[in-house]
């Protein structure tokens, strides 16, 4: 009877397992619009009051499928970038780790790579730097710079002694695409936006994304529209005139309302009938205004109407997964001393503070470090500006071109650089690549402006960056002209043939900062028998060019003091005063030497006094621990 039961049970299990093996999900797997070869449209997730699908575009400046080799004379989609990261993870398994840190708002993977020699220790035991691109979906040059740096590091490991030493002793974290939703929309459609594609009421009218731009002439690009003022109402609004610098009449110059000949719009229609054009397109939140340091509410959300607000700030600090994933990674990896989270398109080494002056709010020693990197960066990249957001960035143009008034410092809230320094205590830059083609001051007026960009486009770029004004019969405005600078691959990002010049120089600056990371090293361990006890004197140095902690890092306690400990087998230290091994000094219960913070180039020493209550020699490990300087240990023997 029992055999029959067991036989029946086994048959039931086989049937059950077979049924389980054949089980299929009836939930269709999500297909991203960039992967859907059948669809002619690019669809964006989220419930909005405006359009969520657009004609799928392919731009000649973009590579949509991986080639046999990776070159930087063309832009790459997130999928193409991820292809290469997967290739590198297989090709360099000893020094890379590829993983998903989060999923974007729409659910796409956000991949990150750790680069370090695994044989020389854990990545968290080493000083580290973090480099990120693609936070703003349309600022694709930033992602290319992170991709270039990754390739440069991996291909030169074992060939370039400095890079080999860097990867053997430090950790580099790279995240090329922190906002794959925005980047894919940018590269697969005519649409563009600031950051995430989450619906947002930009114009505060109670509707979400109801008035996006439209490609009216069907060329796949959203250009400008200029309307010659004809009616009295239009003439009151007209605030542009033809700039006489350009003999072809392509450029317009801003003047006061009512003193112009033209009204300017971005290409599209007034979908919600409020008299404004394209003021509430796809998304509108800004991942670079969503950090917790000095965060302020979005436009219109200050109850008093008299306080500060910050456009695109989000519902609350870290409300967006893309920013939150960066924050959580950094907070859980306090070994990171250097960060650059890249953007476009002001050619500038951009750093904190964002809401106050450097002199007002930075520790003098920290400020000196930042000013050193400002100069170093400019010497490598040739950017015309380097400095803080609040003063240098805000006043770089000196005067308001329209009013002639001197520019004043202006705060940005919830900004990455403020978080990076005041909250995280790191050397944090938010560098901006590209310059709208304004390579030099052609007319000698002291500024690099649209005229200079137009001259460079004509002389060096084959006039490909500017579309000549072409008449178009607008359904609401009547006769207009469509044209202007190419917004994607001239205005916001450069022409592909010029790409590698920018991203390589930026990457070399990032690499230079990584080379300066702090590095705690044990110089010597001396063991001497004195009055029946053993004195263990440990000396160490910080061989890096950065301290193990900025003064701000000490203030906010993102780093601990450097600590020194002596570890024996637990059996030897059991029994208190009867233990076979007793650490007499330090007298603290945890027997740890707290050594403060080791400055760049500084050498320190500390002493343990150990009593050994046995004749046999004992082994111990000297452990030196620094939050940002690394972790090292050395084995010693006490006794003969």
From TrEMBL:
Pfam families according to UniProt: Peptidase_M14
Q: Indicate, by first and last residue, each region the UniProt record lists as having compositional bias (Basic and acidic residues).
A: 198-207
Query: Which residue numbers delimit the Peptidase M14 domain?
Result: 74-373
Name the UniProt key words of this record, in alphabetical order: Hydrolase, Metalloprotease, Protease, Signal, Zinc
Cofactor needs? Zn(2+)
SUPFAM superfamilies to which the protein is assigned, alphabetical = Zn-dependent exopeptidases
Signal peptide, first to last residue: 1-21
Which parts of this chain are annotated as the region Disordered?
Answer: 192-216
Family assignment from sequence similarity: Belongs to the peptidase M14 family.
Q: What is this protein called?
A: M14 family metallopeptidase
Species assigned in the record = Mariniradius sediminis
